[in-house]
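Summary: Need help interpreting a holo structure output

Steps to reproduce:
1. Submit the protein chain below together with the SMILES for zinc ion.
2. Request a joint structure prediction with the ligand placed.
3. Inspect the structure token block that comes back.

Expected: a single structure record containing both the chain and the bound molecule.
Actual: see attached output.

Input attached:
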Amino acid sequence: MLSHQWQNIIHHILGSQCGLCRFPLHASHHTNLLRWCDDCFEYLTPIRRCRRCGLTFNAEELQLEAECGECLKDPPPWQRLFTLGDYDFPLSNEVQRFKDHGEAWHVNALTQLLAERIEQPAPVMTCVPLHWQRYLRRGFNQSHILAEHLAHHLEVSFDGHIFQRAKQTSSQRGNKKITREQNLKGAFSLRKRVDYSHVAIVDDVVTTGSTVRQLCDLLLEVGVESIDIYCICRTPAPNSL
Ligand SMILES: [Zn+2]
Ligand SMILES: [Zn+2]
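--- attached output ---
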């Protein structure tokens, strides 16, 4: 990851661009410490989502109160999912820059924004684990860093050692839900005794939910009663793309 000094220097050079979408900032854009343009702020404005899966409601579900039809029919193992927005430009680029190149300039601001949306946060936060070989290659676990920031903003505990990734899985990008679930079979296990009743799992992106579903199952098996998911982006359902 880039040192803070280098990040500051590069940030200074790029100061005339919006930090998120990288388009030029105009005088008409309101100035703020983050130097994000008005379009990005608008994009990050919360929209109505299913409180359980975090997806937006489709046309037939608009009259539903809190949960989408799919969640009412077949609820996921977690209770609430909070996200900043869809996995789409510019958030998708930001997440990739962080994950692939360690560019963490906006992690603090994005997690602060997410923290402001979370109602009744779980008293303990954990993260999706990375296989040790991938950790050695990348040098950091993006979910661990996000969870630490979120826990700090929400003033709750962080426990990054609940899960371990026993199996290295190939990149899940582009895989369908069924393939993801097959790849993830037996990929995770608990590293320690878990005595919490309410836990939040943090990840950068929730796509099909296959990863967090596996982790939820491990927690539910040992008596955890309530699980929340906090993520920067939620991949829209295929039929809403
Ligand atoms: Zn922008
Ligand atoms: Zn739902």
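--- end attachment ---

Reviewer comment: DSSP finds nine helices and seven strands in the chain. The domain at 44-240 is CATH 3.40.50 (Rossmann fold).
Status: needs-info
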